[in-house]
Design goal:
By secondary structure, this protein is an alpha+beta fold. The protein has ten helices and 20 strands. The relative contact order is 0.19.
Length: 404
């Protein structure tokens, strides 16, 4: 194989791939680096289809990558936004208990958040809750003033500008279709021609497992896509939500549940639910990809998950198609809501890594397999943590590839 044109190829121009590229060029400015993105524009999938929350680090097991990198990443993200004049709003979040059964879990969340170093957490009663969110109801809540909102697509564009200013290339419309490794080099076949690189870092999100297989890495964990659909609050009701209103998570179920999220433009998103997507990029209910669906159906891990959570899956699917059921879930926290207050909203697809035993891979997974470095699981709070994850990926790459 001919001498490679590039030292490093990063696959995926979402917020993680771009953060990693930026970190690499900061530490190694002479590196010949290219970012390959299959879409016509950057940040078209998880980065551009999330709720925009700047997470504070409450939910994650102390000592986990999610806990450490969320808290550190939030600090880095806010500093980056300040330096690049990217607007954000630390509007705060309340995690609301509506019945006594939830109170022990709420206390555990507070302990976990403090163990993770989340600043300013405050346990509040109904009166303080009404001061913060006058239209919300609950018997107790955990208030996180450090939680905020930002436009992650704009953040990604700023990362991309830094990459190109430091000499990196970003090529869109370059879908990776195969990777051949020989003599320590990689020939990366794409829809727009071949690229050769000495090393590869994959931050491919919804395609992470497929890219891993191209390099000879194990097939598992496999990515299973879950679509989350939102409603938006009618403009006349936007002032009913001042920041964010979240439920107390139930550990018996794999996803968080519906919540209220204010956006920078003033809109309020309601949701999401969590249903199996019939395509990895299936943002609409009618989107079906036969190959994607067949992979899911054949995967033993998904069959284990389906047997374990089939009732939850039916409930989520019912709520997806029945607006009245979605409204009922929201009314638990805001009883004044009426059907006319909910307007059709956007959707997103979460790339969830799933083990062969049917367990959702909870923590971030960054490892070297098949002669390349792969980010194989990076769900929320990956956007908040992007700069810290990028630093971790580069630390790993420096050791694995002997970068100097």
């Amino acid at each position: 194989m001919a001498e490679p044109t590039y030292d490093m190829a990063i696959i995926g121009a979402g917020v993680l791939g771009l953060a990693t590229a930026m970190e690499l060029l900061t530490r190694h400015p002479a590196l010949r680096l290219i970012v390959l993105e299959k879409e016509p524009e950057i940040a078209q999938h998880q980065t551009g289809h999330n709720s925009g929350v700047i997470h504070s680090g409450i939910y994650y097991a102390p000592g986990s990558l999610k806990a450490r990198l969320c808290v550190a990443g939030r600090i880095k993200l806010l500093a980056f936004c300040d330096a690049h004049a990217i607007p954000y709003d630390l509007c705060g979040k309340v995690i609301v208990a509506t019945d006594a059964e939830e109170l022990p879990r709420l206390d555990q969340l507070a302990e976990r958040g403090r163990a993770n170093g989340v600043a300013g957490l405050e346990m509040i009663g109904p009166e303080r809750l009404r001061e913060l969110e006058p239209h919300a109801v609950g018997i107790k809540a955990l208030y996180s003033p450090a939680t905020g909102i930002v436009d992650y697509a704009r953040v990604a564009r700023a990362y991309a500008a830094e990459v190109t200013e430091h000499g990196g290339e970003i090529r869109t419309k370059h879908e990776v279709t195969a990777i051949t490794q020989r003599d320590g080099f990689n020939r990366i076949e794409t829809s727009a021609g071949d690229v050769t690189a000495r090393w590869i870092i994959s931050c491919a999100g919804l395609e992470a497992d497929r890219i891993a297989r191209f390099t000879g890495a194990p097939r598992t964990p496999q990515i299973v896509p879950f679509r989350g659909d939102y409603y938006v609050l009618r403009p006349e009701r936007r002032d009913w939500v001042k920041g964010m209103i979240y439920p107390v998570p139930d550990p018996r179920f794999p996803f968080l549940g519906v919540h209220f999220t204010r956006r920078l433009d003033g809109a309020v998103w309601l949701g999401p639910n969590a249903v199996l997507a019939f395509a990895r990029e299936g943002y609409r209910r009618r989107d079906v990809n036969v190959r994607d669906l067949a992979e899911i159906a054949r995967y033993r891990g998904f069959r284990h998950l389906a047997r374990r959570y089939w009732r939850t899956g039916i409930d989520e699917l019912y709520r997806d198609f029945r607006k009245a059921a979605f409204l009922k879930a929201l009314q638990r926290y805001m009883p004044q809501l009426r059907m006319a207050d909910l307007l059709p909203g956007p959707s997103g697809v979460r790339a969830q890594a799933l083990g062969e035993d049917g367990a959702l891979v909870d923590d971030f997974v960054v490892n070297v397999e098949g002669g390349a470095l792969h980010v194989r699981n990076a769900p929320s709070p990956a956007a908040t943590s992007s700069l810290a994850i990028g630093a971790l990926v580069v630390d790993t790459a420096e050791e694995a590839f002997s970068l100097t």
